[in-house]
TrEMBL record:
GO cellular component, one term: cytoplasm
One term of GO molecular function: guanyl-nucleotide exchange factor activity
Taxonomic source organism: Geococcyx californianus
Bilayer-spanning residue ranges: none
Name this polypeptide is given: FGD3 protein
Gene assigned in the entry: Fgd3
Native organism taxonomy: Eukaryota, Metazoa, Chordata, Craniata, Vertebrata
PROSITE patterns: DH_2 (PS50010)
Superkingdom per UniProt: Eukaryota
């Protein structure tokens, strides 16, 4: 009550928030796996539903609880921004809170980058499937930049030929 502070605590914890990026990267796959298991296995579905009925779950599904970590970093960032708006300029916690916001924003960017990277990999996998799996393009170093129709002009007679290009 004498000297309430938040920024110094968040500074110490902020570096650990980057690990949420790994969780976010695998979130869609984990969610699909849970949904598939719920559909294919009645015992699994029963266990999950029994747990969800417990008061501690707050009437939320497993999927809702799985979504919480994905929303955590953006929520921290918004709360800290709001805290800083209301914190007087001369407050002792001001510099620590600003540094915490910087660190948490970095973690949020890391998490968002992980999401974008996975989305790009999913697109690359889709291209791979569309090509019939003949070309070995699925490589973490590869990235689908653009795709679309183009017109190839023949060098011999200048006629245009339709092509579909993956860059």
């Amino acid at each position: 009550n004498v000297n309430p502070r938040l920024g110094d605590i968040l500074q110490k914890l902020a570096p650990f928030l980057k690990m949420y990026g790994e969780y976010v990267k695998n979130f869609d796959r984990a969610m699909d796996m849970v949904n598939t298991c719920m559909q294919r296995s009645s015992p699994f579905k029963d266990v999950v539903q029994n747990i969800q009925k417990q008061e501690v779950c707050g009437n939320l599904t497993l999927q809702h609880h799985m979504l919480e970590p994905v929303q955590r970093i953006p929520r921290y960032e918004l709360l800290l921004k709001d805290y800083l708006k209301k914190l007087p300029e001369e407050a002792p916690d001001r510099k620590d809170a600003e540094k915490s916001l910087e660190l948490i924003s970095t973690a949020a960017n890391h998490s968002n980058a992980a999401i974008r990277k996975m989305e790009k990999m999913h697109k690359l996998l889709e291209v791979y499937e569309r090509l019939g799996g003949e070309e070995d393009i699925v490589n973490p170093a590869n990235e689908l930049i653009k795709e679309g129709h183009i017109q190839k002009l023949s060098a011999k007679n200048g006629t245009a030929q339709d092509r579909y290009l993956f860059l």
